[in-house]
Automatic annotation (TrEMBL):
Gene3D superfamilies: Conserved hypothetical protein from pyrococcus furiosus pfu- 392566-001, ParB domain, DNA helicase RuvA subunit, C-terminal domain. It comes from the Bacteria. Residues 216-237 have a biased composition (Basic and acidic residues). The lineage of its organism: Bacteria, Pseudomonadati, Pseudomonadota, Betaproteobacteria, Burkholderiales. It comes from Pararobbsia silviterrae. Residues 208-237 are annotated as: Disordered. SUPFAM superfamilies: ParB/Sulfiredoxin. This is Chromosome partitioning protein ParB. Pfam families: ParBc_2. Signal peptide: none annotated.
């Protein structure tokens, strides 16, 4: 996610008090971060927590709405991390809730879509990171980028856009049954022409085919142009 320039004033905040700005995560990605944490020693863990900061918007009732690192935050909660550093990108705590959410959407700081890709009301957003729901297509979209299916892009929630695209191509059961096979299919779909509207698309743009009538008309015009025109001389009166 592309974040605005800001002076980093880090504030320690309880991890379980952070508010999500999305409804789902890819549990596969969360599990990988969890596994990585288990390989770290005590000093490396402290260093990791100290070097990561969670960008957030300060909202009504002085709540911190994080706009990135949802997967990391959930993984750390599962690993019993209690406090993290937060940097406030914007203080909107003084706004009426209706205007607050309007500004959140205007700045692309919120993604209120459920695990089926349906738009939901802001009230449906989870209150805690532990309330985030697994979306297998978000896991697939994340692995697809790692596998070279598309390039990393600054577009907010770009992985969710890819997840929605893949949702049209296969079922969640296929992903859960054989993830590697689903990833292979996803790679084929990722380079298709119909995916070229998506952020980070890496396919090859194909030239538009010329219609048969256009070819025929073109040949006819070229033939008529190549024939010499006879000029009739006028008889003198």
């Amino acid at each position: 996610m592309l974040l605005p320039n800001t002076d980093l004033h880090l504030k320690p905040v309880k991890l379980d008090e952070l508010r999500p700005t999305q409804m789902t995560v890819g549990y596969r990605e969360v599990a990988k971060k969890h596994e990585h944490w288990q390989t770290l020693g005590a000093k490396a863990r402290d260093s990791s927590v100290a070097s990561h900061w969670f960008p957030a918007i300060l909202g009504p009732k002085a709540r911190y709405y994080i706009v990135d690192h949802h997967h990391l935050g959930l993984a750390w909660l599962e690993c019993a991390v209690e406090t993290v550093n937060v940097t406030v990108l914007k203080d909107l705590s003084w706004l009426d809730p209706t205007i607050f959410w309007r500004m959140m959407e205007h700045n692309q700081w919120v993604h209120p879509f459920d695990a089926q890709g349906n738009r939901r009301d802001y009230e449906a957003l989870p209150e805690r990171l532990t309330d985030l729901v697994d979306d297998p297509f978000r896991s697939l979209a994340g692995e697809l980028r790692v596998a070279g299916g598309y390039a990393k892009d600054a577009t907010p929630f770009s992985e969710f856009l890819w997840a929605d695209y893949l949702r049209q191509k296969m079922t969640a059961k296929q992903i859960k049954r054989d993830f590697d096979a689903a990833l292979k299919d996803a790679l084929d779909h990722a380079h298709a022409q119909e995916a070229r509207y998506l952020p980070g698309w890496c396919g090859t743009i194909e030239p538009s085919p010329v219609a048969p009538e256009s070819k025929a008309a073109s040949k006819s015009e070229s033939k008529s142009d190549s024939k010499p025109k006879k000029i009739k001389s006028k008889k003198s009166e």
